[in-house]
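Researcher: Before we compare anything, I want clean individual predictions. No alignment, no superposition, just each chain on its own. First chain goes here; please echo the sequence and then give the structure tokens.
Model: Echoing the first chain and its structure:
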Amino acid sequence: MRRLRLVVSVMCVLALSIVPVFAHEGRDIGDFVLEFGWRVEPAFAGIMNGPEVFIEMHEGGELPADLAVDLQAEVTFGADSLTLILEPAYGETGYYIADLLPTLPGDYTFVISGTIGDMLVNETFNSADGEFSSVEPASDVAFPPTASLEARLAALEARIAELEAALASS
């Protein structure tokens, strides 16, 4: 019985220690709290993702049913920028998303602007600040490694060229 209690205790500790990453940065905006981050953390280059915004009442109450929210996200990487409209997520009050395929690893900056009710929003979030992830290279999670795939492709292209040459000479 003692051994069973020990096993159950260890399993409970392990289960509680396995928590999904929820790396977001929060800001107070009037009566609201806005939390911003990637939809999937950590973010990887070449893998579909996008920004997400959660809006809650500062004091924990429910958002007004008639609350008008009009937000956009200007995402910047180096000298490149793109504006995304944040759309309400289906069936989720106070949850807004946009699709984005980050193509390069590194730090991304988002400027969230627009309105929440009568409140003007103009907040800058930068992954370099560490509150949400920078985009990581897909090679960190890619399998099989792309170098292996590229080598196999080059070998196949060489074999095709050999076969084409053999056909042309016969």
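Researcher: Okay. Second chain, same rules.
Model: Second chain and its structure:
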Amino acid sequence: MNNIEQIKTDKFSFYVFRNIFDGNELEYIWKEALFLCDNSKLENPNITGSAKFENGKLKKNNAGIWLNNIYNKDNLSNYLKIYKKPLQNIHEFKNSDYTLNLYLHTNTDSTLMSYYEDNDYYHSHYDVSAYTYVFWLFKEPKNFLGGDLYFDDVGYKIQVNSNMAVLFPSWVIHSVDKIMMIPGIKPYKGFGRFAFSTFYSFR
């Protein structure tokens, strides 16, 4: 069972989930992640969507694919079959975090699988949704440096681990620092950082 930690800042609360899936579940997710990665199905930020600077330049450099868009039904995706498991007990925190009620009343979501490799990054931005949930997956021992998540407004760094996730209000300014693959890891493909980002909203 995963462990949920509530972390409060002076502007918002967020939630860290550790040891989310068991070995069989992780293998199940890996099969999908590597299939999409190794078969060159991933798309560039112009297709997957990216926050932009005022001059129109994209704020991120990575590859990704919207899982909901490539399957006719969510239950055809390995990840989308089990992605809600970690969040089933989050309602226990609603009395200590009033804004969490916003997440609890969302009624639609979409999931983007992103893959970060050498020199990939995502500069400071916010998401156009109510709440954002990000699950990380990568091969261990880790074959890269960087790739941590920052909440820029409050100066908080989350050192990411595989089989770990975070839930936070989407308006929070956040960024991902540049990935640097460890020399000698070739081919890189599949040895970088996978991020499954689910954006919760209303319809």
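Researcher: What stands out in the second chain?
Model: The chain has five helices and 14 strands. Additionally, The first strand starts at residue 3 and ends at 8.
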